[in-house]
Amino acid sequence: MSAHDMPGQPRFAAMDSIGRRELLRRIAIAAGCVSAPWLGLVPSLGAQIQIPSEFDNGLDSIAVAFKAPTGMTLGYMSQPKAAGMRPGVVILHDMAGLSNNVRGLARSLANTGYAVVAPDLLSPQGGTAGFRGVDAEVQKAVAAATAAAVGQQATAALGYVKTHGGGGGRGLGLVGFGWGGTQALLYAAGRTDIAACVAFYPDTKLVLPVLAKISAPTLIIFAADDPATKDGAAGVEQAAAASKRPQTVKVYPGVGRNFHDPGAGAKIYNAAGAKEVWTALLQHLDQQTKDATKEKPKATAGA
Q: CA angle at residue 139 from 136 to 140, to 5 degrees?
C-alpha cells in the first residue's frame, strides 16, 4: 500500500503508538518530501554517474507503507512510469537507516528497469525519521535489530514489490549495504525465492557459516582498505569457492568502505571504482532477473 493509495484512517491505526500526523510526517521524510538535516547533501557527480532526481519525470518515486509481522513497515519505492511489469529489487540499508543515499540508489536502479523497494528496517521503532537525524541513536537501533525482525520485513518488502510492479522478469533481487549486506546474505540462506543477491561490505565472520546455504547467484563486494573486512575478505573468497554455489567475490583495491557512495565525501568516494562496481551490480542483476529475450534498458545511473 503506497502513501498515495492508503484508503483511510483505519490503516493508519496500525501505528497508533505514534499517531496519524506523526506517521504522515515520517512517510513524507521517507519520500524525501520534507526537509531534514541530511537531505540534499549528495554532490554533483559530473559525467561519470548521475543519480536521478526524486522529481525525475520518468520515474514514479514515492513513500510506501505495508504490513509485516512486526507491524507497519515504512519504506521508499521507485520504478519507471512506463506501463508494464519488471523485475523487483529490495534494498536493505546500512547502519545509517533509510537515508537519502539509499533512496538515490533506489531511483538509480529503477532508472535501469527495475521496481525497487527500500524498507525502513527501523519501522518497529517508529522509523529512521523518528530519530530526528541523531546518527548515534540510529546506529544503536539498527545494531539492536534482530535477524528475525529484519527477515520478516524483508519478506514483506519482497511480497510488496512483486505485487506493485515488480513481478516481471525471472525473479526478485536482494541488495544490501554494510549491515544490510550482512542481513541480505543471512536472509538468502536456504531460500528459493531470491533470483539474485548482492552484498556490499558484509560482516565476514557472520556470513561465513551461511554461504554454502545460499542457492541464489550471489555477488559479494569488498573494499581492500576497509579495516572492518580487510582480514576476513580472503576467507569469504575461499568459502565462496568451496561452496560450489554460483558466488562471486570482488575485492576492489585502493578504496575504502562506501567508495561506491557519492554521498560519502570526496575522501571516500571513488568515481572510477563506483562506476566499475555499479556496472558489476547491474550485470549481475540483469543476468539473473531480466528476461533474456527483452532488450535491457541502458544503464545511466549509479550510486
A: 85
Global pTM value? 0.82
Burial class (CB in 10 A: 0-12, 13-18, 19+), 244: exposed
- Going by C-alpha positions, the residue among 101, 79, 109 that lies closest to residue 300 is 109
CA distance 189 to 72: 25
Among candidate residues 89, 108, 87, 60, the one with its CA nearest the CA of residue 296 = 87
Q: What residues contact residue 204 under an 8 Å CB cut-off, 6+ apart?
A: 229, 231, 232, 233, 235, 236
CA distance 202 to 257: 11
pLDDT in tens, 9-39: 333 333 444 454 455 445 554 544 443 333 3
Side-chain-side CA neighbours of 275 within 13 Å: the count stands at 9
Alpha-carbon span 238 to 211, nearest angstrom: 11
Distance CA 141, CA 93 (A): 13
CATH of 9-289, one of 3.90.550.10, 3.90.76.10, 3.40.50.1820, 3.10.180.10: 3.40.50.1820
Q: Given a cut of 70, is residue 90 above it in pLDDT?
A: yes
A 10 A CB-CB count for 147 gives 13
